[in-house]
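Dear H.,

Thanks for agreeing to be a second pair of eyes. The structure we're designing against is below in token form, covering all 316 positions.
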């Protein structure tokens, strides 16, 4: 009898131990670019909400647009022995050494949103991202259809060295090359922020005879498009009419601007990448090591026609 009780107790202890391991609360470090745009803020909020829903302890670090801060954050996550790391890199280059450190520590890394230029794909588990080249193509196709391919365009680029800027520019240029009467007449970075977008647009307007020669603004994100709206209004022109505006992100503010007739089109970039990133880490920790190296999230193009309704839906 005594032996049976001891055996039962031992089995109970083993099963409790297993349960604790299975239900172990994951700790995940998330290195975010910053809070340069409304889209970025939605992205951070979405990742935090997803972590909370799943009972994940999220260590969130805002790099304020500086790669050196991201590298410090990743090193600190490694030192804390997190179960996984999610990184939204500010620029593409310069990540190999710190990812090698994570690999040596046995910590899986998921890249979200912008890309990292790496020659060794064993340094990360997967990347969850939009096809930024296609976003640029979608914006250009809309503009070429709307203007019958005759348009002098000014371009507000995103952060220099960031995939979202490099690839959107590539996709847009690819399409307009097919239209001999479409030209990018000025192009400069507005760093993905509203204030810089406005400042650069002001300089474009000055340089282009108060804006008279400008047919359209191609802004790599909504935030800079809204900056451009402010600059165009201050210059006494009517944005969305005198000068067309097409951008990327599909944040609520741009739907409001489109509903008011101030901008014309936006391509959606979903901010909901936290779920697939956590899924990949969990699957890896459960022994699945052969997942895809890229998970693509795509969005459509929206125009003024549905803007008021979309704004209502997204702000309710
Ligand atoms: O990397 C994605 C881009 O970064 C978004 O389009 C922009 O709003 C953000 O700052």
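And this is the sequence the design step returned. I haven't edited it by hand at all.
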């Amino acid at each position: 009898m005594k032996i049976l009780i001891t055996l039962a107790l031992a089995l109970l202890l083993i099963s409790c131990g297993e349960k604790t391991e299975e239900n172990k609360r994951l700790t995940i470090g998330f290195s975010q670019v910053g809070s340069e745009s409304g889209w970025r803020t939605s992205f951070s909020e979405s990742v935090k909400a997803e972590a909370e829903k799943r009972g994940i302890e999220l260590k969130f670090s805002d790099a304020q647009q500086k790669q050196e801060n991201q590298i410090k954050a990743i090193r600190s996550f490694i030192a804390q022995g997190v179960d996984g790391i999610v990184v939204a890199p500010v620029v593409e280059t310069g990540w190999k050494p710190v990812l090698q450190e994570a690999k040596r520590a046995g910590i899986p890394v998921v890249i979200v949103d912008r890309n990292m230029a790496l020659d060794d794909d064993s340094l990360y588990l997967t990347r969850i991202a939009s096809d930024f080249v296609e976003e640029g193509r979608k914006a250009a196709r809309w503009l070429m259809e709307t203007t019958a391919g005759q348009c002098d365009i000014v371009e507000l680029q995103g952060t220099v060295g960031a995939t979202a800027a490099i690839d959107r520019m590539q996709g847009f240029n690819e399409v307009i090359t097919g239209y001999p009467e479409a030209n990018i007449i000025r192009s400069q970075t507005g760093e993905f922020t509203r204030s810089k977008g406005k400042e650069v647009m002001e300089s474009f307007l000055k340089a282009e005879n108060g804006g008279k020669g400008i047919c359209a603004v191609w802004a790599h994100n909504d935030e800079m498009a809204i900056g451009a709206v402010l600059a165009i209004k201050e210059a006494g022109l009517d944005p969305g009419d005198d000068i067309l505006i097409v951008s990327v992100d599909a944040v609520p503010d741009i739907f409001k601007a489109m509903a008011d007739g101030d901008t014309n089109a936006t391509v959606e970039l979903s901010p909901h990448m936290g779920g697939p990133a956590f899924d990949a880490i969990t699957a890896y920790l459960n022994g699945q090591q052969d997942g895809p190296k890229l998970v693509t999230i795509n969005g459509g193009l929206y125009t003024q026609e549905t803007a008021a309704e979309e704004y209502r839906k997204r702000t309710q």
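Two observations from my side: The domain at 132-269+302-315 is CATH 3.40.50.2300 (Rossmann fold). The pocket of alpha-L-arabinofuranose is lined by residues 36-37, 39-40, 113-114, 164, 192, 221, 223, 248-249, 269 (CB under 6 Å).

Warmly,
E.
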